[in-house]
């Protein structure tokens, strides 16, 4: 199924992000994760891509194919271009096509040290190639601006360039401040963004994880999150539960505000995804409650 079509559904599209097993680790790990996610009936499951280029792309493709073929779900393969040549990209898209993948998230990625390919500067340069190859193509959106772009309005201009290049939907970077994300949606719509923007939420699991993420993506930490981090600093179990509960409340708030969709950064933990679906279901969004969600923490 083309992901652009999932946004036509009456119920809120709830999707999940997972990452493939690292290096030579067995694919079985990913199979277990997907089998935990499948009963939650996600709108789609996206699979991250190693920015190193061709080396690890096979893992993304293998996992996306498994999602489609073994679980009969819709997959989306991420694809980065910054360290790749046009030929690398053509080959990877060919392999994705052969694997039956229909949806690609077209990304610039971050530069890998030592890489010298200069065929792509920005994601907008990749998007037309993916589209021409017959995929439904999504791109990344940044509710608080991209970490390298200090001017928020400029980041909206760059978002619009991706839509103009052919992006059919956007998936957002994680954020902890719903107000900031809703302001961003207003700005994007005023700037002419018409394609759906599904909003990415990641439950925080530990202080070190949240610190790393905030530095990597520039998301702001609202005071309720800072207070939870302080309160449960020495109690990892309670901090994890608080992080999931905070994310669930965030997602319900976004759904109530009329978000096009919610994308859960699952960190390969089906219980996290289950908690999100449970909370949304209880608030009247998404598919009906499911057995597999029993025992979810919120
Ligand atoms: P772009 O849209 O090209 O933007 C990159 C920077 O260039 C931004 O600062 C932007 O403002 C600026 N820019 C864009 N256009 C112009 C222009 N015309 N002139 C000047 N400046 C411009 N990374 C991975 O390696 N693998 C993954 O699987 C992965 N998945 C992701 C999924 C999501 C939903 C998100 C939000 C990010 C993901 N990333 C992933 C991270 C992403 O690769 C980085 O954030 C990367 O730095 C930017 O990618 P982009 O596609 O947004 O780039």
Automatic annotation (TrEMBL):
Annotated GO biological processes are:
methionine biosynthetic process; tetrahydrofolate interconversion
Q: Which cofactor does it need?
A: FAD
Keyword set for this entry? FAD, Flavoprotein, Oxidoreductase
Q: What is its pathway? A: One-carbon metabolism; tetrahydrofolate interconversion
Decide whether keyword Oxidoreductase is in the record.
yes
SUPFAM superfamilies from the xrefs? FAD-linked oxidoreductase
Cross-referenced Pfam families: MTHFR
Q: Which GO terms describe its molecular function?
A: FAD binding; methylenetetrahydrofolate reductase (NADH) activity
Question: Which reaction(s) does its UniProt entry say it catalyses?
Answer: (6S)-5-methyl-5,6,7,8-tetrahydrofolate + NAD(+) = (6R)-5,10-methylene-5,6,7,8-tetrahydrofolate + NADH + H(+)
Similarity comment: Belongs to the methylenetetrahydrofolate reductase family.
Q: What is this protein called?
A: Methylenetetrahydrofolate reductase
Organism of origin is Slackia equolifaciens
Ranked from the top, the taxonomy reads: Bacteria, Bacillati, Actinomycetota, Coriobacteriia, Eggerthellales
């Amino acid at each position: 199924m083309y992901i652009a079509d999932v946004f036509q559904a009456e119920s809120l599209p709830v999707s999940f992000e997972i990452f493939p097993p690292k290096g030579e680790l067995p694919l079985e790990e990913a199979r277990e994760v997907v089998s935990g996610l499948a009963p939650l009936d996600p709108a789609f499951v996206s699979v991250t891509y190693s920015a190193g280029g061709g080396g690890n792309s096979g893992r993304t493709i293998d996992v996306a194919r498994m999602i489609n073929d073994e679980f009969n779900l819709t997959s989306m393969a991420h694809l980065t271009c910054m360290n790749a040549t046009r030929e690398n990209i053509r080959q990877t898209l060919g392999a994705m096509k052969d694997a039956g993948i229909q949806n690609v998230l077209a990304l610039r990625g971050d530069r890998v040290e030592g890489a010298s390919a200069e065929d792509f500067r920005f994601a907008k340069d990749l998007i037309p190639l993916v589209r021409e190859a017959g995929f439904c193509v999504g791109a990344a959106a940044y509710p608080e601006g991209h970490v390298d772009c200090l001017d928020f309005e400029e980041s909206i201009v760059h978002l619009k360039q991706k839509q103009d290049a052919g992006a059919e939907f956007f998936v957002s970077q994680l954020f902890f401040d719903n107000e900031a994300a809703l302001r961003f949606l207003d700005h994007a719509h005023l700037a002419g963004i018409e394609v759906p923007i599904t909003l990415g939420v990641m439950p925080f699991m530990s202080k070190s994880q949240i610190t790393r993420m905030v530095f990597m993506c520039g998301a702001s930490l609202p005071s309720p999150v800072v207070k939870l981090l302080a309160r449960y600093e020495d109690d990892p179990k309670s901090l994890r539960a608080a992080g999931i509960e905070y994310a669930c409340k965030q997602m319900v708030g976004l759904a109530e505000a009329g978000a096009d969709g919610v994308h859960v950064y699952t960190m390969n933990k089906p219980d996290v995804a289950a908690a999100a679906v449970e909370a949304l279901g209880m608030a009247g969004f998404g598919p009906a409650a499911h057995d597999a969600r029993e025992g979810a923490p919120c």
